[in-house]
Amino acid sequence: MTRLDLGALAGLPEGAGPLADPRSLRTRIVHLGPGAFHRAHQAVHTEQAEALHGGGWGIAGFSQRGRSVVEQLAPQDGLYSLTLRTPDGPRTRVVGQLREALHAADDADRLRALLASPEVTVVTLTVTEKGYRRAPGGGLDTADPLVADDLAGAHVPGSVPGQLAHGLRARRVVCGAPLSVLPCDNMADNGQVVARLVREFVEASGWDDRDTLLAWIDEAVAFPSTVVDRIVPATTDADRDAASAALGVRDEAAVTGEPFTQWVLQDTFAAARPRWEDTGALLVPDVAPYQVMKLRLLNGSHTLLSCLGLADGRETVADAMTAPWAEPVLRAYAAEVAATLPPGLDADGYVDGLVDRFANPAMRHRLGQIATDGSLKVPERWLAPLRDLRAAGREVPVLTGAVAAWARHTRDHRPDDPAAGRLRAAWDGPADRAVPSLLAVLGAEDLAADPVFVAQVRDRIAALDTHGPTVLL
Ligand code: CS2
Questions:
Q1: Pocket of ligand 1 from Cβ distances under 6 Å
Q2: Which residue's CA lies nearest to atom 2 of ligand 1?
Q3: Which among 32, 175, 343, 372 has the fewest CB atoms less than 10 Å away?
Q4: What are phi and psi of 426, to 5 degrees?
Q5: Quick one: CA torsion of 265, 231, 382, 467, rounded to 10 degrees?
Q6: Residue 300 · residue 281 · CB < 8 Å
Q7: Domains of the chain and CATH, by start
């Protein structure tokens, strides 16, 4: 089978081509981390805006670590297909908005040149929680080896804060044109988080122009916060085969996702952007209400389902949802957390939607994928509401059980987590120190120092060991 590329577009089945002609685009957006999620979400909204209004909003995607995404996309001229798993069966079509598939280190000069170009007015990021290189307190982790190398003057910046800071430094000198930097990862206040990391990088850089650069960033660079939502499982060989069969050409870069999509953007842009609001995205003054609802209800439920489901021998979210404990546990979790959401949100309706989305039998979203990097996800998803509720004097039985479920997961599996070594060490040390040590890995020294909470978590671990997930009810 020949490979998908620009030359193959004319031969695609009816309705399977890009919404906008890829040849009419130029690079106006730089994206860091062009993995499956970006390709199934922001790139698709951008293509829809392009089809409606033009503008030539092509994207240059820069992979951060591995090279497989570049190897899949570059021979295909950046083209790939998105298969939506709708209730009426899969729908596959090619998306053409990604015009350059590059690597941040191999193509560092191109990255810097694009960030300095006045043609580029938007930078988006999906680099996962760990890609931001934050220390547990939230600031730049200067002890992270990539950050430390960058601060020591590495010629090619390896960390995301380093790449952004170098790019902005070049931009100020080359054109000084305003720019918007939009993180699209699951973190509260993600815009402010990135603004702080970039500033701290510049402050620590030792560059002689750092004060001028910081003043220019304040004036010319916006960091809108965003909330992104679409369930996008890691692509499997079977997905690639099915997409290729539907297209009649081989697609090594195929992605799949659910039909649902949400994008909420803080309306504080500094420069031109695609009209995403005409593609269903919401532009609002403050994304926080949407952010807490999504992080705490959707992502929090996901993490809970992954810990409980893997312990129950389940493989995917949909498979876990067929367990008798799953929906009652999700609803009990949501009922506890809902008290921490801003007033006026329809939490019940949101949870009904989640139950349907999670149960979609056409989606094969592996629990093991969600369980990765738990030490960075748990604080955002569970500890923020847990602290809010405890501060209000409320009981938190389900969240305590959730923390216990995660603790068991770190005990019984070898987690794929940047803190894997410290998690293992917590269990290899004295038994009575295991729970406080795990909480310390989460950056929750306050909870680790609370003997009542520690005893409750320990009790719930034992209860889960004996009785399974229904102890959360
Ligand atoms: C998931 C998210 O892997 C995870 O941690 O909770 O990737 C989730 O599928 C997306 O945020 C949905 O928008």
A1: 186, 229-231, 299, 302, 369-370, 377
A2: 299
A3: 343
A4: -60, -40
A5: 170
A6: no
A7: 6-286 (3.40.50.720), 289-472 (1.10.1040.10)
For residue range 329-380, list pLDDT tens digits in order. Answer: 999 999 999 999 999 999 999 999 999 999 999 999 999 999 999 999 999 9
Strand order in the sheet with 262-266: 226-229, 262-266, 282-284
- Percent of the chain whose predicted confidence (pLDDT) is above 90: 99
pTM of the entire predicted model: 0.97
The residues, any chain, with a CB within 8 Å of residue 240's CB and separated by 6 or more, are 251, 252, 254
Helix (H) or strand (E) holding 61: strand 57-63
Residues 6 or more apart in contact with residue 211 via CB below 8 angstroms: none
In the chain the first and final C-alpha atoms are separated, in Å, by: 52
Task: Give residue 304 CA to ligand 1 midpoint distance, Å.
Answer: 12
How many angstroms is it from 283 CA to the middle of ligand 1?
22
How many other β-carbons are positioned within 10 Å of the β-carbon of residue 425? 13
Convert the pLDDT of each residue in 375-429 to its tens digit.
999 999 999 999 999 999 999 999 999 999 999 999 999 999 999 999 999 999 9
- In the three-class reduction of DSSP (H, G, I as helix; E, B as strand; rest coil), residue 459 is classed as helix
pLDDT category at 77 given cuts 50, 70, 90 is: very high
Distance, in Å, from the CA atom of 67 to the CA atom of 184, rounded to the nearest integer, reads: 21
